[in-house]
Design goal:
Elements: H1 4-9, H2 15-20, H3 23-38, H4 45-49, E1 61-65, H5 71-79, E2 84-89, H6 91-100, E3 109-113, E4 127-131, H7 139-147, E5 158-162, H8 174-180
Parallel strand pairs: 1-2, 1-4, 2-3, 4-5
Amino acid sequence: MVKAFNLANHTDRPFYEEIARFPDRASRFAIAMDLANASQGMKPIHVVENYDWPGLSRNATFVDIGGSHGQVSIELASKFPDLRCVVQDVRSVIAEAKDMLPEHLDGQITFMEHNFFTEQPVKNADVYFFRWIFHNWSDKYCIKILRSLIPALKKGASVIINEFCVAEPGMVPLHREKELR
């Protein structure tokens, strides 16, 4: 299927693969995601306040797959000093994110380049977290992303999906639908 992005950019590459080729574009996209994270209903604090993080074992590992600049990990690490966080994303985003990490969280949060279509390199973590990943991919690719996680899972690990769902066309007022799409 040809998408508007592909036509507008004269490319057959998927969106993320294409912007990763241009560090300035990848940086602008990451900044846009930071702004989305700052909007009232989307703030990472909602993730912190709505899961049993204290119920995790001491020194638990949290892997934020496709985690951009690590906004969720920063919120979690600030509140739970024993939680170890690994933020994974494409190279250009990770390079930028390392420079933005608050100094007091250095060592508690680490960054790792990772393509989520390939096998998960962090084995036996307590939590694998996906935020705003699956809405950009067809079912076929969502299944591939999840299957790449299976070899890393330990018994009792949690896979948390924090996703943005868009209502079917015509289900919300037109002005709201325009904002969402």
